[in-house]
Amino acid sequence: MQCVLLDSTLREGELYKVLPLPTKLRVAELLVEAGLKRVEVTVDYPPRTSFEDNVRLVNFLRDRGVEVVLHGRVYRRDIEAMGRYDVYGVALYLAVSQLHLDHKLGGINYEEAKLRILEAVELVRPMGLKYVRVTYEDASRLYMERRLDVLDDLLRFTGELRSAGATLISIPDTAGLMTPRHSREFTAYCLERSYLPVAAHFHNDYGLASTNTIESILAGAAEAHVTLLGIGDRNGIADLYEVAVPLHDVHGIDLGVNRKELARIYREFSRLTGVQIPWRHPLSEEARTIRAGVHQSMVIRRPEGYIPEKKLEYDMDAVRFAVTPYMSHKLILEIARLDGHDLNEVDARRIVEEIVKRIATTGKKGSPKELANYLSEALGREVREDMVRRFFGEERAYILLKLRPQADAIKIVSELATWEEVDYIDEVYGDVDIILKGRIKISRANLVDKLRAKFPEEIEELRVLITD
């Protein structure tokens, strides 16, 4: 059975950051662009969340061919609320570990927990849904604590759940207890004993959620849960990119994700929500930045020596090189060659040593313009700034925007989220309203000029801070 990715950015992800409806709708559109076929949304909980907003989100996804799954508790109130929507399926959850039964559910026993789950599934049956998932919350704890008698009984119980209308059983690693070996073995163990297909949901408490999810898929999980950037409760769950891309690029398993669009989608999602792409994420700016000199000298000729070929093909428009004490003199040779200058290795090494000395003295690597000026001095001929930027990237700046009272900040952020030269956006309170970090290109229409041209009536004050 081909595994289906269920994206939970609009459910699990909202435990990390609650988004306004216009932002949710754009995130939903990004999920569609990413090729996600199944998306999870939390049922409404008035007055905290509204049916009106929720149904707009659900209908938006459904109208674009997405299988929408509503997530809620095994309570009649949640199930009755689910009945108001036109959705593909529902997900019902209840904890099954002794720890949760005692301290979250008021001390109920396993038999009562099973009865509640069965009654909930039976309540759902009249809806005629194609998808009814039952989640045994904290199921992994039973396996890790070797409570296999209880786990086996719950897995046998899936036969009754199937007869009542359930189509899938989820066995989440709720507290992030597992390592990859456990994840594969746990999934295989449950598959051998369950009368229903198994869904994988791993939390990231040890930083292993994505790897654990891959192992579970390889073991036969029918569904796997992911979010953009892995956002979710605590430090999240499996990341869409970190699951789908290794399976595609390394294992040759295509889960239907639009591989070539993921880098763009992640950048826009980050700008739109203010959730930064961590430096260690495969799509971060640092992922394409080469620092060690021996690496740099290789990457000039064959970048796949240090970066996977598929990442070079799909995720990066160019590799960047860092100015560090370890930079390679071959970078200077290559810049000089491409700019039409003759330079020997001795002079190239001397120039690098001088650059490194400046870094040690000032603590700053210098802007592309400063590097271009220095190289021009050292060579006695002009070195174009755009050539330097080709290797070392554009200048980066923080831009602080103070808006006029009538300005629509949400609309402005939504527009800026589509600008590729913007890396990060955050709405703040105080002397300014929006802080963004972006790249300043050497062109007439650079980021600062674009801002002034696009929002002349909305921006009251604009300040620029160049960062090293």
Outline the structure in words.
The chain has helices at residues 21-33, 51-62, 76-82, 98-103, 110-124, 139-144, 148-164, 180-193, 209-219, 240-249, 262-273, 293-299, 309-314, 329-338, 345-362, 368-379, 385-392, 409-416, 447-454, and strands spanning 4-7, 38-42, 67-73, 89-95, 131-137, 168-170, 198-200, 223-226, 289-290, 320-321, 395-403, 422-427, 434-440, 459-467. The protein has three domains: 4-273, Aldolase class I (TIM Barrel, Alpha-Beta Barrel); 285-392, no CATH class; 395-467, Alpha-Beta Plaits, CATH 3.30.70. The protein is elongated and about 85 Å long. The protein starts with a strand and ends with a strand. It is of the alpha/beta class. The longest helix is centred in the C-terminal third of the chain and has 18 residues, at 345-362. The strands form three sheets. Strands 1-2-3-4-5-6-7-8 form an eight-stranded parallel β-barrel, surrounded by seven helices.
